[in-house]
Amino acid sequence: MYQAARTVAASSSSRLHSPVAWNRKQDYYDLEAGERTPLLYARDNSREALRYRKKLRPQDDPNRVHPVALGLMLALLIFLLIGVVIGVYLLLLTIQRPWPVSHPFFLVERPAWWPYPTALEATSLNRQAITDVIVVHSDTECCFNQEQCVRFLQNTEQSWWSGGRQEHIPYNFLIGGDGVTYEARGWKSQHGFKDLPGQNTTLVVGMIGNFTDRQPTAVQYAELKAFLTESIRRFSLSPQYRLHGAINSTRSGNDGAALYSQLQRWPHWMGFVQQQQQQL
Known about the structure:
Blueprint (H helix, E strand, L loop, with lengths): L1 H16 L3 E3 L4 E3 L2 H4 L2 H22 L6 H28 L12 E2 L1 H4 L18 E6 L8 H17 L10 E3 L5 E3 L18 E6 L10 H16 L8 E7 L8 H7 L5 E7 L5
Parallel strand pairs: 3-6, 4-7, 4-8, 5-7, 8-9
Antiparallel strand pairs: 1-2, 5-6
């Protein structure tokens, strides 16, 4: 009996450690005999593995961005934006200003003084090539408030349109004695003075009034400076522009002398251009 008990114990121990056991009654190897009892052990192992995977999951997730990497990317993006801002600021500093401008720029656009359906018809100006500014005087009475200046622009527009020429006001801009710039043809269209050079590279600015024997008002000069600086700021005028006056050979030799005596002291002054026949 003792020997039989040892045989049964050995057989049971063999079943525990081997997944394959010999079935003496059936005369074959029992493949399932060794798997019944060890299932408890395997289940315990699976629980341990599950807890281990849970611990590793936050670090081993391939789709998760590491906090340190995310912080580095954000810092790199911030430095990039700061670099762009500094670059733009330095670029703006390289744009030459003709002088410090304390007088603000005032602009009255064309629709504000010409509220009629007739659209401006003029050849487009090559904005990238604007290198010259011609300043002339209108050789008329000056205007000292917006009502007077608007009336002057309307009369000039009607005169040029109904005088047989069927053309719009020829100036690009006009500056009144009220210190305001009035848009005529603007920055995008060629001026209408066919006897003045450089129609595709020039802005013509008219100072409203007769300035042969007397100077324009101080606010007109200040507004002209503000206009030039604003044109550069809008990239509508080259920072290396050339400033000119116009001499009308059909008038007296000192036409606009008081105006030009001041402009000749300004930066970028390059002298006079000749103009004939057409009235400014």
